[in-house]
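Tutorial, part two.
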Amino acid sequence: PTARVEKVVPRVRAYSLDDHALARGSRAVGDDDMDPDSAFGAGQGRPQVAQGQHNIKVAVRCRPLHTSERQAGGRPIVKVVGGKTVILEDPQLTAADDYLRLNKSKERSYIFDEVFDETRDTRQVYERTTCFLIERVVQGFNATVFAYGATGAGKTHTMLGCPAEPGIMMLTLLDLFTEVAQQRQERHFDIRCSFLEVYNENIRDLLRPDAEYLDIREDPLKGMCVAGISEVGGLESAEEIMSLLHQANRYRTTEATGANAVSSRSHAVLQV
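Running the prediction step on this input gives:
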C-alpha cells in the first residue's frame, strides 16, 4: 500500500520478496507490459530495487533429496534451467492400466525471478534476493523477506541457518549494521527487534513466552500491528539480535514429522 504525508514524506512504498513461493507466470513485477528482468537488474550483476513502484520478487530454492528419500528409492526430478526456470520431469508413476494417461507426458515447467539448485549456498541466495534491499531499509522503506514451503523444504535452514552456514537473517543483520555504522555521523539510528510466532491462528511473543496470546489491531499511525508485542531496543550488533533470536527460537512449537525429526510447526516473524 502507498501512504502520502503532504510536505513531510512525498511517498512511502513497501518492498517485499517471497522465497519458496508458489509457481506463477513469468510476469514478475509491476504492470503486465513490464519486463520482469528490468525491475531488478537481472543480467546486470546484483539485482536493484526499481524506482517509484512496488516490487515483488519470487525466488525458488531447490533442496537435495533427504537420506530417507534416497533410501526409499526416490530420485530427483527437478531441474533448473538458466537460473529462472524449474522443470519438473515426468515422475513416470502412471499405472500400466491407466490408458488415458499412459502416453501423456507429465513434465511441467515454471518461470520465476530467480531459481537456485541444490548446489547454491545460502550466501548466493542472499546476494540475489535480499542484499539489495538493505540500502532502502536504511533510507526508511519497508522490506519483507518471506520463506514459504512444505514441511522439510528448508525454510528454517535458509532463513535461520547455522553457525557454519548463517541464514538470510544473520547475513541481513550483518550488512544492516555495517550500513548503519557508515552513516552514524550523519543520522541517529535506534534499532529494535521483536520476534513472534503464529500457530493455530494464535500469536505468541517469543521474547516473552509466558505472556498471553496477542491480537492484531489497527493503529491510526502504524496501521495493522500486533498489540502488546515486546520490543528489545538499544541493539548495537547483529550478534545481539541473533542471540535473542536463538534464545527465543527454543520456545517455538515443534513436532516430529515424516520429513523432519524436529520440525517447526509454526510461522515465525522477526521484525527489525
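The CA atoms of residues 17 and 57 lie 5 Å apart. In part three we will examine how such features are distributed along the chain.
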